[in-house]
Amino acid sequence: MREHPELGRARVLHRLAWLWEPLEPDPRFELRTMFGAKAAYLDGQLALCFCAGEEPWRGLLVCTDRGRHAALVAEFPELRPHTVLPKWLYLPESAETFERSATLIVSLARHRDPRIGVAPQAKRKRAAPKPGAKKPKPSRRSRGERPK
């Protein structure tokens, strides 16, 4: 990838960007990065994750509760619990029906299907140091020293 001085760097597009594009006009849509994937939030709920890595991170993750798995799998038999995150359903990009099914699932999310979406976990705050605990020694880098 070459840089042009007046144009800046070329932007690398996500291979599944075409899937979240229908969600972009929605003012309650937000796209964030999550463990190397792009996560789509609708109304503050985590709805979908678009994964472009290697299996099992190459496809569409449907963020849902386990109690809703059966209803979604009945409609989309190619969905299955993700091997690393079994609380969510996974549609691998290698599935024969990926484009059709992924497009329909995104449409369901856009229309706020109650089976899709989970409240994101609250970020954990760092524990306050215990009284009397020693402070960690600053690293060489934080003191401005170069590694040897």
Structure overview:
The chain is of the alpha+beta class and about 150 residues long. The protein has a domain at about 15-110: Aspartate Aminotransferase, domain 1. It is built from 3 helices and 6 strands, in the order αββββαββα. It has helices at about 15-20, 70-75, 100-110; strands at about 30-35, 35-40, 45-50, 60, 80, 90. The protein has a 6-stranded antiparallel β-sheet. The chain starts with 16 loop residues before the first helix and ends in a 38-residue tail after the last helix.
Structural class: alpha+beta
Helix content: 10-25%
Task: Write down the CATH topology of the domain at 17-110.
Answer: Aspartate Aminotransferase, domain 1
Provide the CATH architecture of the domain at 17-110. Answer: Alpha-Beta Complex
Low-confidence stretches: none
Using the CA coordinates, give the radius of gyration.
20 Å
Strand content: 15-25%
The SSE order reads: HEEEEHEEH
User: Which strand order do you get reading across the main beta sheet?
Assistant: 1-2-3-4-6-5
Shape: globular
Helical element count?
Answer: 3
